[in-house]
Amino acid sequence: MDVRVVLLILATTITATGSQQISASRNPLPVGSNVTLFSQDHVKTGTWISDNTLIVFIAPGNVNIPDSWKDRATFNSTTSSLTITSVTLEDSGEYTLQAFSPNNFIHQLTLSVQVPISNVSLTASATDLVEFNDTAVLTCSVLNGTSLSYVWMKGSSEMAAGARVQLSNGGATLTIVGVTRYDEGSYRCNVSNGVSDAISPPVHLNIYYGPSNTTMTVTPMRSAYITGSNITLSCSAESKPPAGVQWMFNGVNLNHFGQELQLEMVAENKSGNYQCILHNTVTSRFTSESGMIRILTPIAAVVVNPTGGPPILHEQYMLHCEVTGYVENIQWSRNGQPMTADNTTVIDMTNRTLLLKPVQLSDNGDYRCEASSPVSNMTSHPYTVEVNYGPMTPVIAAPSMALTGQMVTLNCSSDSHPPSHISWYFNGSLQATTSELVIGPLTFNMSGQYTCMAHNNITGKNSSADTMLTLLAPVTMASIKIVGAQPIMNHTFHSEL
Ligand SMILES: *[C@@H]1O[C@H](CO)[C@@H](O)[C@H](O)[C@H]1NC(C)=O
Ligand SMILES: *[C@@H]1O[C@H](CO)[C@@H](O)[C@H](O)[C@H]1NC(C)=O
Ligand SMILES: *[C@@H]1O[C@H](CO)[C@@H](O)[C@H](O)[C@H]1NC(C)=O
Ligand SMILES: *[C@@H]1O[C@H](CO)[C@@H](O)[C@H](O)[C@H]1NC(C)=O
Ligand SMILES: *[C@@H]1O[C@H](CO)[C@@H](O)[C@H](O)[C@H]1NC(C)=O
Ligand SMILES: *[C@@H]1O[C@H](CO)[C@@H](O)[C@H](O)[C@H]1NC(C)=O
Ligand SMILES: *[C@@H]1O[C@H](CO)[C@@H](O)[C@H](O)[C@H]1NC(C)=O
Ligand SMILES: *[C@@H]1O[C@H](CO)[C@@H](O)[C@H](O)[C@H]1NC(C)=O
Ligand SMILES: *[C@@H]1O[C@H](CO)[C@@H](O)[C@H](O)[C@H]1NC(C)=O
Ligand SMILES: *[C@@H]1O[C@H](CO)[C@@H](O)[C@H](O)[C@H]1NC(C)=O
Ligand SMILES: *[C@@H]1O[C@H](CO)[C@@H](O)[C@H](O)[C@H]1NC(C)=O
Ligand SMILES: *[C@@H]1O[C@H](CO)[C@@H](O)[C@H](O)[C@H]1NC(C)=O
Asked: Do residues 23 and 37 make contact, with C-beta atoms less than 8 angstroms apart?
């Protein structure tokens, strides 16, 4: 009977009882190697079959191996093991040990013969890539090898597929869509099968990017600079290759190239907008950054001057703070005390004036103006304000009566600043332009009303007062005995003849 027919019958009646009972000396195994398949259970009668071809027919005292296997298969009756030498890829498949005695069973094992991996290479569609625009395609290939699986490495870490990182071609192709600067690095593919593994030489991806994150720094950092300062402007960005830098001032190209722009001994006309333009020639991308630089002349002089007339009590008076150089703020002070606006003091920052409205006697003092800017400050010399006033109603010191022939002195004074000019009038005619009027020897026609006129040539005001002088004839034949003091006006005067 044909062995194959027997086997087919048996195969349909006996069910497989598992595959653990067969073990291989090696599995998977490389082509060309030898393999021994071991059975746990001893077989007296049975077969070794591979994919429905008989390899060994086992019967007590008789082991039959077909010609097609004779060269390569050997059966050890002691162990019931099958050894196959010089395996080929075609030897991969299911191996079945079917026993009829001493027990009925079917044991199975799937054998995998693989070609060892050799000559792994990695190629990239391009290795110089532009961030965001380009896609990297890396292909891993082997000269020889079967049942390949791929692990992709970036540097020393394993890569995982994701939204941007895609695997195709059974894992042999890695695609990075829209590369970023962080994708730069060395890539390798690690190829393995059951019998070997190999790693490709690295391929380095250069990612060109930027300029981005452009910054401008100014040293020293100030809100404003005094004329004559040295200022350094510097622009930088994240860029590969490094970006070229060009400079503009108020929209005009300065024809200056380089990260730094030095401004030396700056004049006021260097105030304005500075801009740096960065260009990456590989990515063809531009960025720019700009900053305002203020250059101010320092305050060279501060002088307090009056505007208009002199300070006159109860009138208006204005002081002006004259500043040479750039000024942002002024502060007035009187006698060292900072002044604030109130209902009689108006401070005008725009016109830099101080208005006293109205002038009071308490406004006397030394006025200073302190001018300041972000780059300098200066205080004026003091300007002394003396409030002009008067004349007040004159006060006259004069006797009301006198004897003919005598000399009398009339004195007039008036509170005034500056001191008033005093004039004396009698019957409308000027007698003197001094505060003291001495008249005499007296005659009767000298009696009457004397007028003292005070004139302040600053305030332009006049004030006057009168005094009456009554003349008496001396008593020639009698002696006058004066009792008490001198005669006082409106007091009773006693004399005894
Ligand atoms: C396989 O077996 C044959 C015969 O026993 C032997 O000559 C050969 O060296 C073996 N090959 C290997 C790789 O062990
Ligand atoms: C069969 O295997 C046994 C145990 O490994 C060994 O001792 C014996 O020599 C083998 N027989 C043949 C014919 O190779
Ligand atoms: C494969 O690699 C070996 C050694 O690594 C080398 O000698 C041989 O030339 C390579 N073959 C090819 C086709 O690259
Ligand atoms: C590739 O494998 C074949 C057999 O599959 C073999 O003949 C050839 O020599 C192998 N080449 C290399 C380079 O290993
Ligand atoms: C820009 O710089 C900042 C701070 O240095 C950093 O946090 C940010 O990630 C950078 N942005 C880019 C796109 O590099
Ligand atoms: C500014 O630079 C000039 C020229 O380098 C130098 O002579 C000058 O002393 C510098 N001025 C300051 C304030 O550093
Ligand atoms: C990158 O892509 C943008 C938009 O698709 C395109 O305008 C630009 O020219 C590209 N840049 C480079 C360097 O290819
Ligand atoms: C100014 O204000 C003060 C109090 O606020 C007040 O006593 C004074 O009379 C005011 N002077 C004038 C001139 O309005
Ligand atoms: C500044 O002075 C001008 C004239 O000199 C005047 O017209 C203007 O009103 C003044 N400004 C203020 C805020 O008083
Ligand atoms: C004025 O300038 C001096 C130095 O020039 C500085 O020490 C002082 O703090 C400044 N004062 C003000 C109020 O700015
Ligand atoms: C006011 O009078 C004084 C003293 O006579 C004189 O020196 C001064 O020039 C006069 N001032 C004016 C404004 O007339
Ligand atoms: C003296 O008395 C007269 C009348 O009573 C009066 O008008 C005058 O002002 C008085 N003079 C003085 C200095 O008191």
From this structure: yes
